[in-house]
Amino acid sequence: MDSLINAAARALAGGDALGALKRVALRDDPSALALRGIAMAQLGEHPRARELLQRAARGFGAHEELARARCIVAEAEVALAMRDLRGSPRTLATAAGTLEARADLANALQARLIAVRRLLLLGRLEEAAAALTRLDARDMSPSLTAVAELAAAELALRSLRISAAQAAFERAHQAATRACVPALLAEVAEARATLDRPAARRCAGGVEQALRLDEVAALMASSGLVVDACRRGLHAGATWLPLARRPVLFALARALAEAWPADVDRQALIACAFRIRRPDETHRARLRVEIGRLRALISPYAHIEASARGFVLKLHEGGDAVVLAPPVDGEQAALVALLSDGVPWSTSALALALGASQRTVQRALAELETGGRVRSVGRTRARRWLSPPLAGFTTILLLPAALPPE
């Protein structure tokens, strides 16, 4: 390795991206291309950085598999920053294996952590938790430890394990302090602030109350019936009943819980469940069928009685029936929650994260764009979507595939 490459690498390690570019900007050998790619990534020029890293990986020969593996890991991190989630995880896993075999444990751990963060973005939380458990923390640098603890904290928050999240945040703060990286300290502080922000609204008896995550966890641990409009399901004691794929039953349960202990008019139930303003006898018959299905579903915890004008929810034991509403209204709350991280997302990445088709996501984005809630940059395949940051509350309960409360 020549002196200019050494000097550029030292400049990058110190965060001096421009200083590194001054030394290798006119060179096209694989080592210089890799350093130029990393420098461009530090400057936020992700598309150019990715192109340079791909050229560098192709330029290294068969006997330079260690250097090629490092380029693959760097490109994977850039792809993650660009929210391009289409790449195969097998390539990254192979690169991590090569790095481990060549005793480059720091970059191997970096590759494993990139895989964990990708799984978190895709909402594959159980796989992310398993991958995080397999990491060997003994050889981690303070900065990698902080990133790993942030991932552990997010996993804990999405399953409402608040004490575990607080402990992970504390370990992440200590690690970031040891690493002395201001950007990492700021990231930990921003993530930690999630605990102090409203995460949902408690709706009962016509009164709304903002709740933090710890208060949401306490509500879930209480007796009574909670209609969770963030995760689309019912929570009764230790039982979780998902209703994300049964929207009519969920709409009926929410309407009955919002009115509890009063009853709800049949016309109102038909309007909220079937979205029909002028019902006929067929809709009333269908309402009775759907109420019967909901009655059977919640029979261990409550029953639904017919009243003079509609139906009313009756709980078997003490406690209240409440609705846990998301901090933002609308059918596309999960989409807005993903876009609120301030990073441009492609339609394909959003579709992967939401588990929906690209056409479905495109229709939802067009609807949000008409309402001025999102905007796009670029054209055709380079088009990316952005949303203004949602200040004042956290949307972590709206992220896709959030784990049910434990």
TrEMBL record:
GO terms for molecular function: DNA binding. It comes from Caldimonas brevitalea. The keyword Cell wall biogenesis/degradation does not apply. This is DNA-binding protein. Gene3D superfamilies: Winged helix-like DNA-binding domain superfamily/Winged helix DNA-binding domain. InterPro entries: DprA_WH, WH-like_DNA-bd_sf, WH_DNA-bd_sf. Keywords: DNA-binding. It holds the Pfam family WHD_DprA. Residues 325-377 form the DprA winged helix domain. It comes from the Bacteria. The keyword Thylakoid does not apply.
